[in-house]
Design goal:
The chain is of the alpha/beta class and 424 residues long. Helices cover 53% and strands 16% of the residues. Strand 3 (177-192) and strand 4 (194-206) form a beta hairpin. It comes from Streptomyces jumonjinensis.
Length: 424
């Protein structure tokens, strides 16, 4: 029993020691009026002390004896003072006393030779870049918060290091079968001679566990059609996707034909929320309280016949006569909307609620909006990928469920698409 309790006691004692040290440092900072960051700041000094202690430990390991140990006499190598070196850390610029050995053989691992910043500082730059901040904005932020002057070339080198990771991510293998894939587009401004708006297509899959996964990002051209979509969907198929039960989209031109050519059994479903929002944009706000129930009667109808009757009723009503474009939009989307009416209630809920896609799009749009325009397509993809990487990461994937009752929906999927889904 004693063996089991000893580690717990040690951990508790260690925590108490850390708390005492922190309290003492804070008291000293309060008494002296020291800042947290910057030269002489509390966190800066703590960072310096920890790094120098670690470098001393590395030197002891390299030499084979501790400082002042008689065992080092006649060993053939010994400490030879220190050299100052300034590195960029999360606490700002820190000047370290890096130990040297007489033989010049010591190679620090924590702060390698020629390295001027620690990995955490790179992560901080990438995080700011992912939020859509420009190089100028990042330099200004680091100077204001950390008192660190960073060159534009350094920021470019840090962000360019993501390109290889982006390529690997964009070509990673994917699961063979997906219950749902949502496809949407956002527009970004890219300079190509002149600044023009180009669509960036986003594919978000929902796996068998109900978790979302951004499958890829593609920059398209204006006036895209079936050819563009065939290239995108063929890439997804070549990366391993053999079948998709439902592909939900926003009436993107050429996409339905490309989907059925790629996955013949897939059901192409127009996003109900997008269709409803488009209807509201075509109408006056004062009429929304009447229009919303009329539209809800269409997409909550138990059968296609009942939905068509509800649409006919809207067309002949005062609202329909006032807003014929709303009725025309629903009739144009009817072939891709009606599959929704055949789904069981649990599947309808999942397909209708696109909150998981909307949250991603909102983050991406914020990142691109902050930048204004991008110098190249690759620059736009870097920012979008970093925004995706920051929003969906392995530690948070278990929280990224498409619906609170996914298991109920999965049971309906297994019945509705029984010959295509393998539930294990």
């Amino acid at each position: 029993m004693a063996d089991k309790t000893e580690p717990v006691t040690s951990v508790a004692a260690g925590d108490t020691m850390v708390d005492d040290v922190v309290e003492r440092l804070l008291d000293q900072a309060d008494a002296s009026g020291a800042a947290l960051l910057g030269e002489g700041g509390l966190l800066t000094e703590i960072t310096r002390a920890v790094l120098e202690r670690a470098l001393e430990a590395e030197m002891s390991e390299h030499l084979g004896y501790e400082r002042g140990d008689p065992a080092g006499h006649g060993s053939g190598n010994s400490r030879n003072g220190t050299s100052p070196k300034t590195v960029l850390t999360d606490a700002g610029a820190v000047t370290l006393a890096v130990p040297r050995d007489r033989n010049g053989e010591f190679e620090p691992r924590l702060v390698p030779k020629n390295a001027r910043r620690l990995a955490g500082f790179n992560d901080r730059i990438l995080s700011l870049y992912a939020r859509g901040m420009s190089v100028r904005d990042i330099r200004s932020h680091l100077a204001r918060i950390y008192g660190v002057e960073v060159s534009p070339d350094l920021i470019s080198k840090v962000t360019d290091a993501v390109v290889e990771e982006l390529v690997t991510w964009q070509n990673r293998p994917l699961d063979a079968v997906w219950p749902i894939i949502y496809i949407d587009a956002l527009w970004v401004k890219i300079r190509s001679g002149s600044v023009t708006s180009k669509p960036v297509y986003l594919a978000v899959g929902v796996d068998m566990d109900g978790r979302k996964d951004v499958l890829g990002l593609w920059v398209g051209a204006e006036g895209e059609g079936a050819t563009t979509w065939m290239a995108v969907l063929s890439e997804l198929r070549n990366r391993g996707i053999e079948d998709v039960c439902i592909v939900a989209c926003d009436g993107l031109k050429g996409l339905p034909d490309a989907v059925t050519a790629t996955w013949p059994k897939a059901t192409v479903q127009t996003c109900v929320i997008h269709l409803t929002r488009a209807s509201l944009r075509l109408s006056s706000v004062r009429d929304h309280p009447k229009l919303v129930p009329a539209l809800k009667a269409i997409y909550t109808a138990p059968t296609e016949q009942a939905a068509e009757q509800a649409l006919d009723a809207l067309e002949t009503s005062d609202l329909g006569e006032r807003y014929p474009a709303v009725v025309r939009a629903w009739r144009a989307a009817w072939p891709e909307f009606t599959p929704y009416l055949a789904f069981p209630p649990a599947i309808r809920t999942v397909v209708y609620s696109t909150n998981m896609v909307e949250s991603i799009n909102a983050r991406l749009r914020k990142a691109t909006r902050n930048r204004g325009h991008f110098p190249s397509e690759q620059a736009a993809l870097k920012v979008l990928y970093l925004a995706v990487r920051e929003q969906i990461n392995p530690t948070a994937r278990d929280k990224n469920h498409v619906a609170a009752h996914w298991k109920e929906a999965l049971n309906q999927f297994s019945l509705f698409f029984e010959d295509r889904l393998s539930i294990q």
